[in-house]
UniProtKB/TrEMBL annotation:
Gene3D superfamilies named among the record's database cross-references: TolB, C-terminal domain
The keyword Ribonucleoprotein belongs to this UniProt entry's keyword annotation: no
Alphabetical list of InterPro entries matching this protein: 6-blade_b-propeller_TolB-like, WD40
Protein's name in the database: WD40 repeat protein
């Protein structure tokens, strides 16, 4: 009988605790992604009034793996700055400026696989705080729970005297990005997509992706999935719906990229779609459309795979 009473007492103690822990876990899960109601296959503006604000332009964005930190670019009077918000206890902090300057822009943040680097683009001059004509890829490093805001250039293997734009990283740290470094003088808008392996802490000489991705038109703002199963980019092509559309390409078993496919009118509009990013859990596709950040159920990507 004593054993039975002890068992009953133990179970009575266990279940309330387990229910509390379960409730806390569910509550934390709900709070992820700024506590927003998940989207369907119809794109929606992300966090209107909090992140996507009227009369402002919001661009490249990224969540950390836990979906408890959010970084994004905002254009204020022609100058871009990087903002962030994070989950603090049971609430999300008011967005704060992480990086800004009165002479040069900073935009398109992207976290490294270990989340100890935050990459971005900037037109900061190498040796001064002046602005220059072209954009480079830079990064800052995390020190403990804070970011050291000293800007570090990604190096001459990546950056040139032309523009290097919007980057994303694979799970091994290799970088995909766009550049107009090979554009002819009268076609400076001809950006192409490149990849650079990350070996022994250094980015290697970039390789130009093939003609299933690149063309004689504009290809930029590339997101690659961490396992390199697919990539999404912004292209400006005659068959497009608007000023710039999102395209997707899938890698086959031989390592070749499929011919890039327009993601369709559900995503693309008469405006400009750019800055794609898929969350680490594979659930949501984020992108910029007409100066706001949108999100949509990421299953739309696989629906385009042939």
């Amino acid at each position: 009988m004593k054993k039975m009473k002890s068992y009953i007492l133990m179970m009575c103690c266990y279940f309330p605790i387990s229910l509390i822990l379960s409730g806390a876990y569910c509550h934390k899960e709900k709070l992820k992604y700024l506590d927003q109601t998940p989207p369907s296959l119809t794109p929606e503006i992300f966090a209107p009034g909090h992140i996507s604000i009227k009369n402002e332009s919001e661009f490249g964005s990224i969540f950390n793996k836990e979906a408890t930190e959010f970084y994004y670019g905002a254009n204020i009077n022609g100058m871009a700055e990087i903002r962030y918000t994070k989950l603090e206890g049971k609430t999300w902090s008011k967005p704060k400026v992480l990086l800004s300057h009165d002479k040069y822009s900073l935009n398109d943040p992207y976290l490294s696989p270990d989340e100890n680097r935050l990459y971005f683009i900037s037109n900061k001059a190498l040796e001064s705080d002046d602005a220059k004509e072209d954009y480079d890829i830079w990064y800052i490093e995390r020190e403990g729970n804070k970011w050291n805001t000293k800007l570090i250039n990604a190096g001459s293997n990546i950056n040139t005297n032309k523009n290097e734009y919007y980057m994303s990283l694979t799970k091994d740290g290799s970088m995909y990005f766009s550049s107009n470094k090979d554009a002819v003088e009268n076609r400076q808008h001809d950006f192409n997509i490149y990849s650079s392996e990350f070996k022994q802490g250094t980015f290697q000489k970039p390789k130009l992706l093939g003609n299933s991705i690149n063309s004689t038109a504009y290809e930029a703002d590339v997101f690659v999935s961490p396992d390199e199963a697919y990539l999404i980019f912004c292209g400006i092509r005659k068959e497009g719906y608007g000023q710039g559309d999102l395209y997707v390409s899938f890698k086959d078993v031989t390592g070749k990229w499929s011919k890039a496919k327009n993601m369709g009118k559900l995503i693309n509009t008469e405006g400009h779609e750019l800055c794609p990013f898929v969350t680490q859990d594979g659930k949501y596709l984020f992108y910029t459309s007409n100066k706001d950040i949108y999100w949509v159920d990421a299953s739309i990507i696989n629906s385009l795979k042939e």
